[in-house]
C-alpha cells in the first residue's frame, strides 16, 4: 500500500488514518475528514493545547524520512530502489512519540513544494507555503549541507516564496503579531564546517533574499525579524552514519517542547524548546479543520487571505455549532416542562411543575457554562455576541416557562385564598361563635402571599433582572385585595341580610303593638280627659319614632360589625343607606299588612265598640231603654270615623306633614357601585325618576279604599247599634 490516499473501506465513515490524513490532495481538494482524524487522535478536544509543524524543502531531501524518525509518523518515503517522484499534497499526522516532547504535536508533510526543480509552475508551491504559514507555528526547512550558500539554489527560491506569501498575510492585518519559527535542519552534515558557520551563511543569505523581494505598500521598511525567528540543527548522513543519525534525531526531538524568549524579539535567544506561545495561531483544536478549510478555500481561489476575517468566520461557525450542541442538553431538561405546560394550557388544568426553578436554572447554567468552555476560545467579539444570542434564546424560553408557571401559581393562589376564606367563614358561622372576618382574610392573605413569594423566589437567578418577579407579586397582591374586597362585600351582604331580618322582626312587634292600640278607644293609656281625643292622633308619630329607633339601633349594630372586618367608610355608608331603604320598605309592608281590609275593619270595630260599650270610666254599659243609645252610638261612630283619614296618610301630628323620608334616607352615597341599588324597591319622593311622589309614598289608604272602609265600618257599627238596641229592649222584657 503506497499510503498516499486514505483508503476508504467498506464502511465509508470509517477512515484508515494509518498514514495520517491527506489534508490537501493533488487535485488541491481539501479533505473533509480532517476533523474526524483530529477527533480520532484526541486532538480535537485539546483547545489550544496542541502544536502544528510543517516541513518544507526540495523534493527527495529526506523530509518524510526526517518526520517519521522524529515523530514516529508513517508518511510515505520514496523507496530507495525506485526513486520515483511523489505526488503533490499535504499530509498531516499526530506525533506518535510523546516522550520528552510537547503534547499533541501535529505535523504537516508538504509534498512537492519544490516545483521549480521539476520545471513546473510554482502555483502549488506558493499555495501550500501560504497554507502552512497561516496554520503552523514552526516551519522546518529541510536542506542539504551542500545546498547551503548556493544562493540561487532551489531552496532559496522556496524561501523567497515563503517570505513573499508571508507578507501577503500582513497586508490585511498590519497590526498582526503573527510570528513563526523557521527551523533549518541541515542534512548530511559532514561535520567539517561547524554548524555555526553554516548558520552564518544561511542568515546572510536570508537577509539577501529578504532585501530582494518586493514589499507591498506600507510594509517597505519591514524587517525579516519582524516576522520570523530562526533556529538551526544539523544531522549526519542517515545511511552512512546511521547510529549517529539516530542519536542526533533523538536529541533534535527533545527541542520540540514549550519554550520562551529570553532576549528581545529577533535576538534568537530562547529557553526551553521551540514552541513559543507567540507562534500559536490560537485556533481552538475543535475549529482547526473548519479554519484550515476556509483558509485553503481562499488560497485556492486566489483570494486575498485575510486571517482575522477567517478567524471571525470560524468563530461564527463554531459558536453556532457549539450553541446547537449545548442546546441539546438544555432541551432535554426543558422540553418536557414546556410540553407539560402546553398540555395544561390545552386542558385548562394547572401544571404542577415541581422544582422548576432548580431545573431551569441548572439547565441554564450548564448550557452557558458548556458554551463558555468551548466557545470562549474563539474570536472574543464573536464569542461575546453569540453568548448573548444564546443567553437570550435560553432566557426567552425560560421566561415563557416561568411566567406561565407564575400565572398558574397566581390562579391557584387566588382560588385557594377565596376557598380558604369562605371555608373559614362557614366554619365560623356553623360554630356559632363570633368570627373575625378581617382576621381570617389577613391570615389567609399572608399565607397565600407567602406561597407566591416562595414560588417566585425559587425562580430567581442571581444578577438576572428579568427573574425579579416583583411586578407579578404586586399584581398578585392587588388581585388578592380585590378578591378580599369582593368577599368582604359578600360578608357585608350577609350582615345586611341579618340586620334587615332583625329590623323586620322588631318592626313587626313594635308597629303591630301601635296598631293594636287602635283597638282600644282609649289608646294612650288612662282615661282621656273630657273632650280630648284619645292619643290615636299621634299614631304615626309613635310609629315613626319606633321605626327610627329600631333602625338607629340596627345601624349601629351594622356599623360596628362592618368596621370589625375593615370595611371602608364608603362601604359602610352604602350599607347603611341600603339598610335605611330596606327598613322603610319593611315598615311600609308592615303598615300595609295592618291596614289590610279585614285587619283594619276589625280594629275600627274594636275601637268603636270600646267607645260605644264602655262609659268614660271604662265600665261596660248595660243598655236600658232609657239610655240615649242613639246619641252614644253617633258620638262613638263619629269618633272612630275620624281615624280613617288619620290612617290614610302617614303624617306627623306636630307638623301635619309626612316625615322627611328623603332627608332621613339621605342621598345615595358616593362609592356606591353600579348594582348596589339594583335589588332595591323604588321609594316615592326619594327616587325621583320613579315618578312617584312622597305624597303617594305616604298614602296608606287610597281614596277609594277609604270610602269603601267608611261604608263597611258604618255597616259594622250599625250592626252593633242594632244589637245594643235589641239588648236594651230585651233587658226590659227580662
Ligand atoms: P522527501 O521527498 O523529501 O520526503 O524525501 P524522502 O523522505 O522520501 O526520501 C527521499 C530519499 O532520500 C529516500 O530514498 C531516502 O532513503 C533518502 N534519504 C532519507 N534520509 C536521507 C539522509 O539523511 N541522507 C541521504 N543522503 N538520503 C536520505
Ligand atoms: Mg516526502
Secondary structure layout:
Elements: E1 21-24, H1 34-40, E2 51-57, H2 63-71, E3 89-94, E4 105-111, H3 123-135, E5 138-144, H4 154-171, E6 180-187, H5 195-212, E7 228-234, H6 242-253, E8 259-261, E9 270-272, H7 285-300, H8 307-347, H9 356-375, H10 380-431, H11 437-458, H12 470-518, H13 539-564, H14 569-594, H15 597-613, H16 629-641, H17 643-648, H18 661-665, H19 694-697, H20 703-733
Parallel strand pairs: 2-4, 2-5, 5-6, 6-7
Antiparallel strand pairs: 1-3, 3-4, 8-9
Helix pairs in contact: 1-7, 2-6, 3-4, 3-7, 4-5, 7-8, 8-9, 8-10, 9-10, 10-11, 10-12, 11-12, 12-13, 12-14, 13-14, 15-16, 15-20, 16-20
Guanosine-5'-diphosphate binds at residues 57, 59-65, 77-78, 80, 86, 187-188, 237-239.
Overview of the molecule:
The protein is α/β, with parallel strands linked by helices and 734 residues long. The chain folds into three domains: 22-305, P-loop containing nucleotide triphosphate hydrolases (Rossmann fold), CATH 3.40.50; 314-468; 485-733, no CATH class. Helix content is 55%, strand content 7%. The protein has a seven-stranded mixed beta sheet with strand order 1-3-4-2-5-6-7, sandwiched between helices. Strands 8-9 form a two-stranded antiparallel ribbon. Helix 8 packs antiparallel against helix 9. Bound molecules: guanosine-5'-diphosphate and magnesium ion. Magnesium ion binds at residues 63-64, 75, 86, 109, 111.
CATH class of the largest domain: Alpha Beta
Mean pLDDT: 87
* CATH architecture label name of the largest domain: 3-Layer(aba) Sandwich
Number of domains: 3
**In this structure, how is the largest beta sheet organized?**
7 strands, mixed
* Count of helical stretches: 20
- The coarse overall form would be rod-shaped
**Count of β-strands:** 9
The rounded distance between the terminal residues' Cα atoms is: 164 Å
> In what range is the share of β-strand residues?
5-15%
Q: What is the CATH homologous superfamily assignment of the largest domain?
A: P-loop containing nucleotide triphosphate hydrolases
Compounds present? guanosine-5'-diphosphate, magnesium ion
